[in-house]
What we know:
It comes from Acetobacter ascendens. The protein is of the alpha/beta class. Helices cover 45% and strands 16% of the residues.
Amino acid sequence: xxxxxxxxxxxxxxxxxxxxxxxxxxxxxxxxxxxxxxxxxxxxxxxxxxxxxxxxxxxxxxxxxxxxxxxxxxxxxxxxxxxxxxxxxxxxxxxxxxxxxxxxxxxxxxxxxxxxxxxxxxxxxxxxxxxxxxxxxxxxxxxxxxxxxxxxxxxxxxxxxxxxxxxxxxxxxxxxxxxxxxxxxxxxxxxxxxxxxxxxxxxxxxxxxxxxxxxxxxxxxxxxxxxxxxxxxxxxxxxxxxxxxxxxxxxxxxxxxxxxxxxxxxxxxxxxxxxxxxxxxxxxxxxxxxxxxxxxxxxxxxxxxxxxxxxxxxxxxxxxxxxxxxxxxxxxxxxxxxxxxxxxxxxxxxxxxxxxxxxxxxxx
Length: 364
Ligand code: F6R
């Protein structure tokens, strides 16, 4: 049942801390505090490239995985949505790492992409929540997300579990490729192990998120902005808002706004931005300043270190704990999903069963 929550989605949002912790228990050895992968039928150190593919939210998780694998493991990555990857027919290097991401393991587009990668002698590693699914059977290796059953059609906890697995895979890949010494690995693992407690603190911000929802629910269009690994977080926020509240939302890389969408901005188009204090903080703030100068209303997710600067320009803000840059996209996703939920509740939509959607999409 819903355990007293209004919808399955609300219950599943509250499971983020638990699910991140359970997934880490599966992947991190408690004694050595090192990431342990299942036995692989290939050598991770020799993989020349990675190709990542998935659909919807799982694709956004893959985009964040790309930032990590490139930045930390120095592995070249190609990524596309599964329905495009198949038909692009990109030149692939045999023995590359094919990373497929799916909650259900039954998504037709992702399964078809898996089969086409397999034909090209790509090692298939799937990040799956349903470990007895069709994709699981056709993969060389399954990395399980320990999210438990996800009932709400809109994915929430499976997404942070996917990110947790991708973060661990990044650490293992970086180590295998000689890009991470023991001390650096310890730092990243500590940041991950700290995450369930920090994620639990996000729920202290529920009132601030509900106040933002009061602004968003009045809008017809919403612009979501983020830079770097926060860009896919913005994409996830925009998708979730569209999906369950039926409000049009679009995500843009914050630096790209001045190349077009800035012409949309006025008081009726709120701007939701995810801006923790990191190397891209100042650049993103100046993009937000530009939007504000054109009448845009700024609703900003930040952290304790960024709060003072953000409060000077934002109409509303949500302040999260400050965490290591590496894990910030995992933490920042939670309030962005919560915002979509609270807007949908205000609109009175069928939150768990949005119109026209099904939990697993088995047609191409
Ligand atoms: C968004 C959502 C969908 C799924 C997509 C992939 O909230 O739920 O976009 O993420 O249909 O589904 P899986 O992960 O089962 O392959």
